[in-house]
Amino acid sequence: MKKIDTHQFGEIEVDEKKIVTFQHGIPAFEDEHEFVIIPYQENSPYLFLQSMNTPHLSFLMTIPFVFFPDYEFQIDDAIVEELGIKEQEDLEIYTLITVPGGNVKEMTANLLAPVVINNKNLQGRQVVLERSPYQTKHRLFPDSEEEK
Question: What are the residue ranges spanned by the domains of the chain?
Fold first, then answer.
């Protein structure tokens, strides 16, 4: 177990076998390579991607299929190879969430750049999709049928 300081959770112990490595970092945080996934609450669709090195750096994320059941995309073969993905079951897909002004009703998910993790070797990457109909801000709780 490794102890880390976090802004959100205080000092926590992390099983070193659960550290996710992002070889290239995350866009805009290229120097951050090690993260741990922390559930928001038991049975919650929300999780935190917490930096192992920077206490104030954590990202709120979710499994996109909970909110967007028709969400689908292709992962480039080079990324599949880089992450060592052999089977569909190796994949975990997350999307980062933004909470504008702390207003939960206005939360959006970045469907254009999903976080892809190989759950066998814990290699991860935020993948920016090319030629995609998705955007960086899809509302989790649309106000009307038109927004769904």
Answer: 2-147
Q: For the whole model, what pTM was predicted?
A: 0.90
Instruction: Write the pLDDT tens digit of every residue in 11-63.
Output: 999 999 999 999 999 999 999 999 999 998 888 999 999 999 999 999 999 99
User: Can you name the residues that pair with 13 across neighbouring β-strands?
Assistant: 3
For the chain, report the end-to-end CA distance as a whole number of angstroms.
43
**For 2-147, which CATH class?**
mainly beta
Q: Are 27 and 128 in contact (CB under 8 A)?
A: yes
Q: What is the 3-state secondary structure (H, E, C) of 29-87?
A: ECCCCEEEEEECCCCCCEEEEEECCCCCCEEEEECHHHHCCCCCCCCCHHHHHHHCCCC
- Give the span between the Cα atoms of 113 and 136, in whole angstroms: 7
Q: Report the alpha-carbon distance of residue 116 to residue 113 in Å, rounded.
A: 9
Q: Is 146 a residue whose pLDDT tops 50? A: no
CB 115, CB 80: distance < 8 Å: no
Q: Which residue has the tokens 């969400």?
A: 71
Query: Which tens digits make up the pLDDT trace of 58-114?
Result: 999 999 999 999 999 999 999 999 999 999 999 999 999 999 998 999 999 999 999
